[in-house]
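ugh finaly. both done.
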Amino acid sequence: MAVSLGRKPPAWEGLFSGLMFVFMYLPILVLAVFSFNTSRFSARWEGFTLNWYGRFLQNEALLGALRNSLVVALSAVAVSIVIGTLMAVGLARFRFPGKGLYRGVSYLPLIVPDISIAVATLVFFAAVAFPLSIITVIIAHTVFCLSYIALVVSSRLSGLNPHLEEAALDLGATPVQAFIKVLLPQLVPGILSGALLAFVLSMDDFLIASFTAGVGSATLPMAIYASIRSGVTPEINALSVILILASALVAGLAEFVRHMGDQRQVR
């Protein structure tokens, strides 16, 4: 029986899709609208203003927490790029006893609940008498960031032609030269995509940071949680809108890098 490729989808599919998008994005739309509310109370609209965005830029507590979050995310991602990339390459290119077990343990932080990682990290620091500070937050975030980067780089490695490295070695290149000049340039899109994903996850983390942060090293999610105990103000709404836009920009950039890498691989 011939199938009509141009048939229209049933009405219920369009209705279901519309309800799904309303469920997902209506709260964000309401948040964005009330970030321009003149009133300090989110439940009552009294007029349009941009003052809350200016108030956020003058809030030293939130700006200090934002600086801590950026320091933690950038440091954890920088360390994770090196370790995660080497881990993915080692798993893909070398054979050694216990490789399957090592692979499973390497990606375990992806499925272990955050609360377990937070408690385990806190107990470890207490056992070795390491004082809590922003350094301990960076170490804790590196645990899950390197797993995400290694996973993305591994998926990139599975689509590459391994004969290119072999050809470079046959032409006289050392293993280090073959890695730097042949393999690494092909891995750059996967590394950048994984790094952007890990950066967003680190900026968004609240649970692990709240267990491992010391005095004066509170991150932005922790500062927001402390602020909303007395109620959600339009200033927090404005900050949330800025974070959503920044996350969307980073996600779009990661997708663009991944797409350009796929196009380059096809050519």
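ok and the 2nd:
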Amino acid sequence: MRIILANIMAIYRKELLSYFASPLAYAIAAVFWFVAGCFFMTILLGEINQAAIVDQQYGATVPPFDVPYRVLQGFLNVMGSFSLFILPMLSMGLYAEERKRGTLELLATSPITNWAVAVGKLLGVVTFFTAIVIPVLGYEAIALSAADTPVPPAVPLLGHLGLILLAASALSLGMFISSLTDSTVVAAIFTFVAVLLLWTIDLFGQMFGGVVGAVFGYLSLLKHYSNLVQGVLDTSSLVFFASFIVLGVFLTAQSIDAFRFQRS
């Protein structure tokens, strides 16, 4: 077990260093921060204006407008959707680059198990995504600290946990797709399409209804993410994301096993 953990940590450090040394990764981070800032300002000013209009029209005849909660929920919902565009670009090179450079065969035939490699790579890219999310917390902390009615701590904690779990799920799927091709562009496009399908699959469920609709609804990333963003600790959503991540790692390991079998 200690050897497996050491191998995972070695792959993790290598993968993480490659992201922090990549100009493309910094470009993705810069776009992420700029767009996130624009979204946050737009949502914040929109909710403040809406609250002012309601207060002027109805005064004390309506319940107080919970601006901090609405801002945080709206911002996290938008960030979840926006991340669907960023995550395929982060996962596209996880294995496709190894194939292109011809190093995947060395990796597949090394003493390190495919599971350890996949887990190390996934941890590396999830850590990088978490690192670019952290500065965004500054926007929220500065704006929400001025609120008269503070947001319950469980809401931002569960909301950001949901964002990281959503990212880890999408990245595990992208890692599997990246293991199937030597083209980073193809990997990014197929990952985006697959994640978008899983994001909106509950719409198809509403068309069918019944058991089929319930199954489609359960497979929706949006549904489980929305539960956590609303501050609801839903264990079925946590189990769903954990199962999705494990499935992505499993499929990736099987894909590399198949690659090694073809080469042997």
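summary for the 2nd one i guess: The mean pLDDT is 85.
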